[in-house]
Amino acid sequence: MTSSAPLTKARERDIAASHLLKPYWLGSLELANRLVMAPMTRSRAVAGNVPNPLAATYYAQRASAGLIVTEATQVSPQGVGYIRTPGIHSAEQVNAWKQVTDAVHQAGGKIFLQLWHVGRISHPDFHDGELPVAPSAISPGGDVITPTGAKPRVTPRALELSEIPGIVEQFRSGAQNAKHASFDGVEIHGANGYLLDQFTRDGANQRTDAYGGSIANRARLPLEVTRAVIDVWGAERVGYRISPTGSFNAMSDSGPVATFSYLTEELNKLGLGYLHVVDPIAAPKRVAPILREIFDNTFVVNGGFDFAQGNDAIARGDADLVAFGVPFLANPDLPRRFEKAAPLNPADQATFYVGEEKGYVDYPALS
Question: Cα–Cα distances in Å, from 97 out to 72, 86, 118, 236, 253?
Fold first, then answer.
């Protein structure tokens, strides 16, 4: 087990002044600190896209995070695009997630479920030969691992106007099921090139109806989904994740500042509990500071922050919470390691998406 050196008086003063380690109120939900465990796909679900029984241990080990956001979790079979990713659309899935939330709550943690639909980032192998759906019939390119091996992604079919209310209902149902599974809230996945992001950005959305063209039209589905989820949970228990400048999954937008400023303004009007912005700290032109000025409630930043950078972001008022991904994956007790100035476990990238216990529940905590 890893051990840490005794604290110096100077380090004790640093900890006392630390912003990341202070409690925070997310609406009426008290968080122990301002560290968020970012959503991370781990590809360990079992048959039926049911969360692995080990997931209860995995998340409970990390319950010292102020808030855990689960791995992306599909709201329907139509939303599947990766092997061994969990869902929230069957009774068996809900029951398995209930084991996770019980374990996290028993460990003193708070946990939100991330609601997900991959859209075009899929393959007919996941859908009984049917094409994946998207705002427009534009292929993202690249390959995908299907149940029968690696294959090139295909050109999706554009959703019919009559089908779009059904997408909203998928997210509403997923939100209801998350409540049945005793989560503390939900985060809507509007980032990283998945369905809601595809509708938002004009590189993927070339529709000419009410859901395409203008920024307001492209934001229509994300906002309809958000209203439906708020109807289930109340605004303060709902977050929304965006990646304004991200290019993952062949994404682009001709005017990300204008696009995401509008979306942020509209989410703000809904009283959304938090906005989670993926915007790398090393990026030359960050959008998060602009959106921070627009959004009134809890603002979460994500994108390669370390402890000092996270503290600085909060001290400057650039964020209320800071999300950490890989550091939490490899360090189940990350807040304590930050508190003790202890070394961090290295992450084993070879086990990020492969394996069972190894690289999942076997990272050591401090002794």
Answer: 13, 9, 20, 22, 35
- Where do runs of H (alpha helix) occur along the chain? 9-16, 55-61, 91-106, 164-180, 195-200, 215-218, 220-233, 256-269, 288-294, 307-315, 326-330, 334-340
Token digits for 263? 């979306």
Angle (CA) 189 190 196, round 5°: 115
Residue 240 to residue 20: CA distance in whole angstroms: 21
Which residue's entry shows tokens 């509007």? 190
Classify residue 35 as exposed, middle or buried by CB count within 10 Å of its CB (0-12, 13-18, 19+). buried
Asked if 59 and 50 touch (Cβ cutoff 8 Å), the reply is no
The CA distances from residue 261 to 14, 216, 227, 293, 342, in Å, are: 35, 11, 18, 10, 39
Is 240 noted as a catalytic residue in this protein? no
Q: State mean pLDDT over 304-320.
A: 95
How wide is the angle at C-alpha 316 spanned by C-alphas 315 and 320, nearest 5°?
65
pTM: 0.95
User: Residue 239's closest CA among 325, 118, 115?
Assistant: 115
CB atoms within 10 A of CB 162: 7
Between CA 178 and CA 182 the distance in angstroms is: 7
C-beta separation of 330 from 363 below 8 A: yes
- Pick the closest to residue 295 from 318, 324, 323 (CA basis): 318
- The active-site residue, picked from 82, 194, 360, 363, is 194
Which two three-digit tokens encode residue 130? 């049917």
- How confident is the model over 151-193, as pLDDT tens digits? 999 999 999 999 999 999 999 999 999 999 999 999 999 999 9
pLDDT digits (tens, 9 = 90+) for 45-97: 999 999 999 999 999 999 999 999 999 999 999 999 999 999 999 999 999 99
